[in-house]
């Protein structure tokens, strides 16, 4: 007996939660906003579960929902203007020596470098290098041709190599 679309969606959300969280973090740039983004994406996926076609990968479908929600939120934020959380403002101003100690850690530097990438490059890095999606799946999720995924990934790798140094492994050939 075939599983209902709702059940497949629920199971897929649980099974791939870490991938969705990594992708959302690459977009949102902080864990609290990323968690909100995942929650909103899950709510939308569950609301649309009956329309899910099991011929397609659940990850691709949910990534697209999260990406679309993020894009909508960025458009709304652009109309409202930028806000900064007071705790983040203190951290940005460097009120203590923790920031300088953390920047010595390569993973922290890499995360900062990725955060500085343009959103379209950051999304490709998250999907292909962090989550291990194929170029084809990443193209489907982002709604662009495979060649665009390849060129964005190439440019992102070049930028990251310049920022981090050429001796870092950035997920394959550049």
Structure commentary:
The structure is a single chain. With 174 residues, the protein is mainly alpha-helical. It folds into two domains: 1-83, Orthogonal Bundle (Rna Polymerase Sigma Factor, Chain: A); 93-167, Winged helix-like DNA-binding domain superfamily/Winged helix DNA-binding domain (Arc Repressor Mutant, subunit A), CATH 1.10.10.10. Helix content is 72%, strand content 0%. The chain is globular and about 50 Å long.
Give the total of beta strands. 0
Write the CATH architecture name of the largest domain.
Answer: Orthogonal Bundle
Mean pLDDT: 82
Q: Helix share of residues?
A: over 70%
Structural class label: mainly alpha
Largest sheet: none
Question: How would you summarize this macromolecular structure in one to three sentences?
Answer:
With 174 residues, this protein is an all-alpha fold.
Q: Which helices and strands, and how do they pair?
A:
Blueprint (H helix, E strand, L loop, with lengths): L4 H11 L1 H12 L2 H17 L10 H23 L5 H8 L4 H5 L3 H10 L3 H12 L4 H8 L3 H19 L10
Helix pairs in contact: 2-3, 2-4, 2-8, 3-4, 4-9, 7-10, 8-10, 9-10
Features:
Arc Repressor Mutant, subunit A; mainly alpha; 10 helices; 174 residues; 2 domains; Rna Polymerase Sigma Factor, Chain: A
């Amino acid at each position: 007996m075939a599983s209902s679309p709702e059940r497949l969606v629920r199971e897929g959300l649980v099974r791939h939660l870490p991938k969705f969280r990594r992708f959302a973090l690459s977009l949102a740039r902080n864990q609290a906003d990323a968690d909100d983004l995942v929650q909103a994406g899950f709510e939308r996926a569950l609301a649309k579960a009956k329309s899910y076609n099991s011929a397609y990968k659940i990850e691709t479908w949910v990534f697209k929902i999260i990406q679309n929600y993020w894009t909508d939120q960025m458009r709304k934020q652009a109309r409202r203007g930028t806000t900064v959380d007071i705790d983040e403002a203190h951290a940005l101003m460097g009120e203590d020596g923790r920031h300088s100690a953390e920047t010595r850690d390569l993973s922290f530097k890499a995360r900062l470098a990725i955060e500085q990438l343009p959103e379209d490059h950051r999304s490709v890095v998250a999907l292909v290098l962090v989550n291990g999606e194929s170029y084809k799946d990443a193209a489907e999720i982002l709604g662009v041709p495979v060649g665009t995924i390849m060129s964005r990934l190439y440019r992102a790798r070049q930028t990251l190599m310049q920022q981090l140094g050429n001796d870092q492994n950035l997920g394959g050939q550049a």
